[in-house]
Known about the structure:
Blueprint lengths: L9 H5 L1 H11 L7 H8 L1 H13 L9 E5 L5 E5 L2 H19 L15 H15 L8 E6 L3 H4 L2 H9 L5 H12 L15 H21 L5 E4 L2 E6 L2 H19 L9 E4 L4 E3 L2 E3 L4 E3 L1 H19 L5 H15 L5 H14 L11 H13 L4 H11 L4 H8 L3 H13 L11 H9 L8 H7 L7 H15 L2 E2 H16 L4 H17 L4 E2 L1 H11 L7 H5 L4 H14 L11
Antiparallel strand pairs: 1-2, 3-5, 3-6, 4-5, 7-8, 8-9, 10-11
Helix pairs in contact: 2-5, 5-10, 8-9, 10-11, 12-13, 14-15, 15-23, 16-18, 17-18, 18-21, 19-21, 22-23
Amino acid sequence: MVEKELINVYEELCSYENLETAFNRARRGKTLKRYVIEFEEKLKENLLQLRYELIMQTYEPQPLKTFILRDPKTRKISKSAFRDRVVHHAICNIIEPVFDKRFIYDSYANRLTKGTLNAVKRFDEFKRKVSKNNTIRCYVLKADIKSYFDTVNHQILIELLSNRIKDQRLMWLIKKILANHKGECENKGMPLGNLTSQFFANVYLNELDQFVKHKLRAQYYIRYVDDFAILHQSSTVLDEYKSKIDEFLRVKLDLKLHPDKSQVLKLEKGIGFLGFRVFYNHKLLVQKNMRKFEKKMEQMKYEYLDGKIDREKVIEKFEGWLAYASHANTYKYRRRMTAKFNIAFPARPEVIITSVKKHENFNHKVDESEIEFSQQKTLQLIKKGMTAKKIAETRGIKEGTVWDHVACLVENHQLTLKSIIPENKTKIILANIKSLDDKLKDIKERIKDDTVTYNEINCVLANLRGKHQKKSIMYFIDWYKRTNCFRKCYYNKSQRQECRVKFQQLVAKGAELRFTKNEFLDFFNTHVKICVLPEQDKKRFVSWREFRQNLRKSNHKNNQPSKVSLLK
């Protein structure tokens, strides 16, 4: 789209199709809100009325509803009426594609494919380039514009928009929306919370972006709304940038840098950027964000116990936070929070499961959280194909320590024995173990093979201990589905899916339960009603060999797979 296409765009803005698209975008994530339901009940009538007002230029935005938000800092948020939000989306649908092409690549706020996490990734990329892979000291000009949304000059903004928008009716509508906000200073400020405010913020500060990139020629510059950073090897150069940017903002945009939040800092001390504290080799979450989430989790705990929110919704929010936290070096923190989850949110007698996979994945995370951090790091390196010797060299620990980790992982079923030790050696070791209390030295003396090491014997013993120790209900359910459900009801997929949901309801009710294998089978066969097979078939064990034989017979008998259980 070129500039002349913005001459007569008002009719396109007022079209029913554009208003309907704007409505669908405005309602996204708010379909259960009362004001959305009321607007949607008479959707066509409301959109046609809005269209008439816009065409006749009789449209008047309703007064903004203002409230104070004090977390993490005190901010005044202004909320427009829903019909006005539809108009905001209708405007942005038309003009955003034109202006977005003028924005620099490293402007990350309120744009498709951008966002905070991508901005942090870009900061990491700049950090590596400026510091030559963390070998040279790096400085950062971390700056913030003082009271940005409250001090945007309407006249300057209108001039910037007029450079591209030649349709006077569209400019009339934009002026109406700007005038609807009553700030402390006349003809200044935009409401924090409006879609148009977010978009106009990028238009306004695009002038700063162009100045920094083309006049100052700063190569490593990132901006997110009014928060921006420039990386350089010289603190002197950044001090010069700061003074020139401050002057440009005062003269051209009638803005000021925040005196306390605009500083040249050493990267080695950590730079606070968009919720993270960035260092040379790692990132941490900002403490206030962690406190904010833990406070929110505490609030959800009481809502859950009062029945105001279901467990699945809590899991969804909790996993969203874990996904965000995973972008920083927070393994221990996430593991600790996950381990606390089942204590904070005990399952109620009746649990509705709508996403089985989500519950299964979360329960696996709870199980994994019990494994020590150092052992998990070893497990990750083993999965990459590293040997124990190579892992010890990489991590700077003893090879014996790595083998101790392996034994613990085998015992906790995070690692299979056959992936570590050849089957022939395992058989030799098992033949010479008399009891779980045997000492490694005694077993070694019985084995007449010098190639078998103490570490390998320890792993086999750990595997035996793992078979006899009590494990979580989730572990045995996974085992039962693999060795029983799959083999007995191979052709009855719908029944397996139904039982899968019942299994997750069972886990939600008693996630803290732990069993030996025999205890679990007794519990499953006599105390719960999940399996629909006859009692005799339910308790009967089908070996893998028998399963394959039945499968071959069934396939041979029928050209197409039968939907009947293999036991019938």
